[in-house]
Amino acid sequence: MNQNLWNVLQTLLERDSVGTTELALARESLSPEVFSALVEYMQNGFKANGDQWV
């Protein structure tokens, strides 16, 4: 796994919620392709759980 992605995931898991600040930090740390894949994965997970996306 990409080390930057692993670091971002660990940071997100430590948070109570994921908002624009956390996404901005993730965007700075990840390549555009990896960031897009992460956002898509998160959106699909939120939809599956019935949660509203940011």
Radius of gyration: 11 Å
The backbone outline, from C-alpha atoms, is globular
Q: For the record, give the distance between the C-alpha atoms at the N and C termini, rounded to a whole number.
A: 26 Å
Number of strands: 0
Main β-sheet description: none
- Give the structural class: mainly alpha
Helix content: over 70%
Average of pLDDT: 85
| Strand residues, percent | under 5%
Low-confidence stretches: none
Order of helices and strands: HHH
Note the total helix count.
Answer: 3
Question: SSE layout and pairings?
Answer:
Elements: H1 3-14, H2 20-29, H3 32-49
Helix pairs in contact: 1-2
Overview of the structural elements:
The chain has 54 residues and is mainly α. Helix content is 74%, strand content 0%. The chain is built from 3 helices and no strands. It has helices spanning 3-14, 20-29, 32-49. Helix 1 runs antiparallel to helix 2 (20-29). It is globular, with a radius of gyration of 11 Å. The N and C termini lie far apart (26 Å).
